[in-house]
Amino acid sequence: MTEERFVGYFRLVEACAEPGCPVCWCVIRESRSHLGALLYEQVTDPDTRRAVRASWGFCNWHTWMLPEIEQGKFGSAIIYEDLVRVALEQTERLGDGAGVPRRRGWLATLLRRPSRPTTGRIHRERPACLACVTAAETESRYLETLVRHIGDGEVLAAYARSDGLCVPHLFAAVETSGYRQEARTLVARTREKWRQLRDELGSFVAKHDYRDRQPFTAAEAAASTRAFGTLAGAKSVFGNDVHSPPRCPGP
Question: Which of 54, 122, 134, 207 is the residue whose CA sits 20 to 30 A from 179?
């Protein structure tokens, strides 16, 4: 076991003691750590600044994680002073339609030199958020660690005490594992968690009947919130569909 996997192994065990999906928890924790290191140690590094500038800053999730980083205001101000300057430069003539392709006849279109990309296209096609690239690598690493070691006594016991993986991370674990036996074990253990959650939700609903005088248990009262995380993953780890390509609505 490499040192990296050794550290990841015990961090995963530790994450199983936290509420919600343990892989979501690891991704959130390491995202904060990565951003903290960037603000403290890499804020003047030319390559880092170039990458952040190319992506117009961080994604919505990682941007709003910055205020949570202790003593991070100074580093954030250095980075975002530069980013606001870039935004001003890129949008200098945005309001007057500069750079917007105009409709012309077919011959003019054929002879026209390729136009420079519009500001909107530059923004839409910008590179991925630097922190998201790291988060994706972190996610893959912890999923692989969990699948590989789900049969280990310590991991198995820790996972038994956890809330289990969320739906997106369970699918990702199975797809990236090549459907190994360890993945099937993980699926079975996770489905046990989900069955227990379903029972607690059902009990919570049933106890709302005025004829039922039994008090809610702590697990039943928290079941709805846990179900949110189970189906959608932890808050902000997975994106929304507002700006995704249109899809056909379900039945």
Answer: 134
Q: From residue 199, give the alpha-carbon distance in Å to each of 7, 133, 164, 217.
A: 35, 37, 15, 12
Largest CA distance in the chain: 80
Q: Per-residue pLDDT averaged across 100-113, rounded?
A: 55
Which positions ≥6 away from 58 have C-beta within 8 Å?
Answer: 35, 52, 66, 129, 130, 131, 132
- Is 99 part of a structural domain of the chain? no
pTM to 2 decimal places: 0.83
Number of domains in the chain: 1
pLDDT confidence bin for 242, thresholds 50/70/90: confident
pLDDT surpasses 80 at 108: no
Q: Which of 128, 146, 129 is nearest to 25 (CA)?
A: 146
Q: Is 122 exposed, middle or buried (0-12, 13-18, 19+ CB in 10 A)?
A: middle
CA dihedral 199, 205, 206, 207 (to 10 degrees): 110
Residue 111 inside a domain? The answer is no
Structure tokens at 233: 């993953």
Predicted confidence at residue 225, as pLDDT, reads 93
Long-range contacts of 220-228 (CB under 8 A, 24+ apart): 223/197, 226/19, 226/20, 226/163, 226/197, 227/197, 227/201
Task: Give the domain extent around 22.
Answer: 3-92+124-232
Confidence of residue 85 (pLDDT cuts 50, 70, 90): very high
Question: Which amino acid is it at 190?
Answer: T
What letter would DSSP give residue 162? S
What CA–CA distance (Å, rounded) separates 217 from 203? 9
8 has a pLDDT exceeding 90? no
Q: Is residue 240 part of a domain?
A: no
